[in-house]
Amino acid sequence: MSFPLPPPMRLALDEAAAAAREGEVPVGAVVMRGTEVITTSRNRMRDDNDPTAHAEMVALRAAAAALGTSRLDDCDLWVTLEPCAMCTGAIMLARIGRLYFAAPDPKGGAVLHGPRLFVQPTCHHAPEVYSGIGEGEAGALLRAFFRERR
To answer: Does pTM surpass 0.70?
Structure first.
């Protein structure tokens, strides 16, 4: 039995699919404040020639600009892949309230894998973390993307 995905994760997965069509690694992100979509984004590293243009970074920058503040503590971030160390640090600094992600990333993730930054004593802020939401679809997008390139 499968359940419908929460609308923000559906949006993030749609962004990930769009990224794949553009030749980017298929990762999508959505920043929400309550039920309001603040911004949607996808990986843009190749398109922007910017190694920091991960979906999460693009989303956090756009949300901060849209809301006129660097503090996004009343916002949630939905992303299709476990954030890397750079993105996890940005989530921490933005003070995101809740982080929802689909697929785990044992190789590059920094929330449940690798450095597990939110549980380090130097962590200034840790959001509530919810993982595995849409994991099957996100994982399938990633596997298909990399299979085509190998």
So the answer is: yes
